[in-house]
Amino acid sequence: MGKYVVAELRAAGHVPVILARSHGVDLTTGVGLAEKLSGSDAVIDVTNIVTTRRRTAVDFFSRTTGHLISAARARQVAHLVTLSIVASDEVDFGYYFGKRAQEELVRDGGVPWTVVRATQFFEFPEPLLNSVSPVVMVPRMLTRPVAAQDVAEALVEHVVRGPAGMAPEIAGPDRLDMVDMARRIARARGRRRLVVPVTLPGRVGKAMTTGGLLPRGDYLRGRRTFDAHLAALRAA
């Protein structure tokens, strides 16, 4: 997501300052952060960790968001835009507890803020399919997947508009199952993979398979379709 946001900022005429280890900043420790934020008008936070463990997720997002907010407040940054996930406050999945902690810190952090919740990206199954194993386990999830590019555009638009609190959620135009998405991506990339559906246990699995990850009420609809995404993969 970071690369899409940076490209979108540059296309819109802004000057992005990248907060990443490759640019001398470690959000988990705060090293290099204050210097990089000096003179910045706004921050877009798309930090992430790949984990399903509640403790790991909460620790990561609490530390990174805490460091980011402290530095932004000290440097008088006027706006913090944070990317979150649709239904992360309702589905008790381990990773989502980290996003809840992140949102709470943003709301109470003393920096004018906007939180944008998005559904799963078109690219969501890719890391699973990149496994060397010919057998891939994919969780059953009913979602309205959205193009990462559409989310990046929305984040940059919110930076320009100013703080909005909880912004309208963003989702894609079609309801799709994650298992079917993974199979179609594998075919589009010409990869021979046996995709095995997995239903997570308990209330989490039930919520994910019965619409618990879908947006409720009014939401911003992404303009790119999953079919177009597959066509681009085939062309590449």
Overview of the structural elements:
This protein has 236 residues and is an alpha/beta fold. It has one domain: NAD(P)-binding Rossmann-like Domain (Rossmann fold, 3-Layer(aba) Sandwich), CATH 3.40.50.720. 41% of the residues lie in helices and 17% in strands. The protein contains nine helices and ten strands. It has helices at 2-11, 33-37, 54-74, 94-107, 126-129, 148-161, 178-188, 202-209, 226-235, and strands at residues 42-45, 79-85, 113-118, 135-139, 142-143, 165-166, 169-171, 176-177, 194-198, 219-221. The strands form four sheets. It has a four-stranded parallel beta sheet, with helices on both faces. A two-stranded parallel sheet has the order 4-9. The longest helix is centred in the first third of the chain and has 21 residues, at 54-74. It is globular and about 50 Å long. The mean pLDDT is 96.
Strand content: 15-25%
Task: State the name of the first-level CATH class.
Answer: Alpha Beta
Can you give the helix content as a percent range? 40-55%
Q: From the helix content, strand content and strand pairing, which structural class follows?
A: alpha/beta
User: Biggest sheet, in brief?
Assistant: 4 strands, parallel
CATH architecture call: 3-Layer(aba) Sandwich
Order of helices and strands: HHEHEHEHEEHEEEHEHEH
Please report the distance between the alpha carbons of the first and last residues.
20 Å
Can you tell me the CATH topology?
Rossmann fold
The CATH homologous superfamily is named: NAD(P)-binding Rossmann-like Domain
Average pLDDT works out at 96
The low-confidence runs, each spanning 5 or more residues with pLDDT under 50, are none
Which strand order spans the largest sheet, edge to edge or round the barrel? 1-2-3-6
Number of structural units classed as domains: 1
Tally of alpha and pi helices: 9
* Count of DSSP strands: 10
C-alpha Rg (nearest Å)? 18 Å
What is the 3D shape?
A: globular
